[in-house]
Amino acid sequence: MKLLEIQSSVRLDRSISRALSHEFIQAWQNSHPNALHKQQDVGMHPPAHPTELWTTANYLPPDSRTPEMETALAASEQLIEELLWADRLLLGVPMYNFSVPSTFKAYLDNIVRVNRTFAFDSANFTFKGLAIGKKALVITPSAGDFAPDTPMGSLNFCETYLRSILGFIGIEDITIVAVPNQFMPDEIRQQSIEQARAKLMDLATTW
User: Which residues form the Flavodoxin-like fold domain (predicted)?
Assistant: First the structure.
């Protein structure tokens, strides 16, 4: 079993997604002692945004790219190989302004690439995900409660986007553990953390 952990919070010590991810990984490794684990921290080390050269290179066959184009795509290629290596993805993705952190969006822009993580049939205008056979677990703290049946539910572009973009590249087995109400009084905040922790500890033995 191979686990890729991707963290996108810009916080370190006060990050709920990082803390819960750490606890989950420890419990998961106890249940999977031979598992391999890699971490990609795009919160602390965001990948570069695509450029014009990057985009041009992306849509050319590999044998048509110049050395400069290969260099422009090198970091993206490394991130994709890392993604394809993994059987399990653990994503720490706090909600920022109703959606994902910009650091994580930059990561996605580097890994969602034609003929690498998805295929496109121009004759029928259909798409097919290539990053198949994986499971994703997402830990997503938020300031308030953005569950679908709440007044703020329609503003939850974080969860809907994650399900859509991961599904697009072939990752359809997605579990999201929300950690709401992190801007609420401490008692409510801690209750949400404990509920998320309990779910994660259950998942550590079955996921």
Answer: 1-200
